[in-house]
Amino acid sequence: MEEALLKERVEVLLDFIMKKCLWQFHSRAWDRERQNENIIQKTMQLLCGEPVSKDTPEERCYYADAAYLAESYKRLFPWVSELDKANLKEVMQGLKERLDFLLITGSLNKELTDPLY
């Protein structure tokens, strides 16, 4: 996928998360890393029609957020359903990387890394 188009699509999906999803506000970096990995992975699996693990309570929690995200993306952004699996996975990986930067590595929130918090 062309880099400019990839960035545009990532930003559209990211904007939805930033405006509609409360899970982005976990108070510790490790929580945010784990949530980003699991929710985006499960969202990608749902959008690609792949099996999604829901064996543990934690996985079911991530699945609930991922199901909402996948359904919203399909409803609001028709191009999501038109992408082939390879391009969809590329967009979702870009989304995860951007989330990790904004919510963790690029965040100025010192509480994320405070060992006493």
Automatic annotation (TrEMBL):
Q: What is its EC number?
A: 1.18.6.1
Has the keyword Zinc-finger been applied to this entry?
no
Kindly state which keywords UniProt assigns to this record, in alphabetical order.
ATP-binding, Iron, Iron-sulfur, Metal-binding, Nitrogen fixation, Nucleotide-binding, Oxidoreductase
Annotated catalysed reactions:
N2 + 8 reduced [2Fe-2S]-[ferredoxin] + 16 ATP + 16 H2O = H2 + 8 oxidized [2Fe-2S]-[ferredoxin] + 2 NH4(+) + 16 ADP + 16 phosphate + 6 H(+)
Q: Which cofactor does it need?
A: iron-sulfur cluster
GO molecular function terms listed in the Swiss-Prot or TrEMBL record: ATP binding; iron ion binding; iron-sulfur cluster binding; nitrogenase activity
Superkingdom, according to UniProt? Bacteria
Enzyme class, UniProt record, top EC level: oxidoreductase
Q: NCBIfam families annotated for this entry?
A: anfG_nitrog
Subunit structure, briefly? Hexamer of two alpha, two beta, and two delta chains.
Q: What does this protein do?
A: The key enzymatic reactions in nitrogen fixation are catalyzed by the nitrogenase complex, which has 2 components: the iron protein (component 2) and a component 1 which is either a molybdenum-iron protein, a vanadium-iron, or an iron-iron protein.
Q: What is this protein called?
A: Nitrogenase iron-iron protein delta chain
What organism does the record attribute this protein to?
A: Anaerocolumna jejuensis DSM 15929
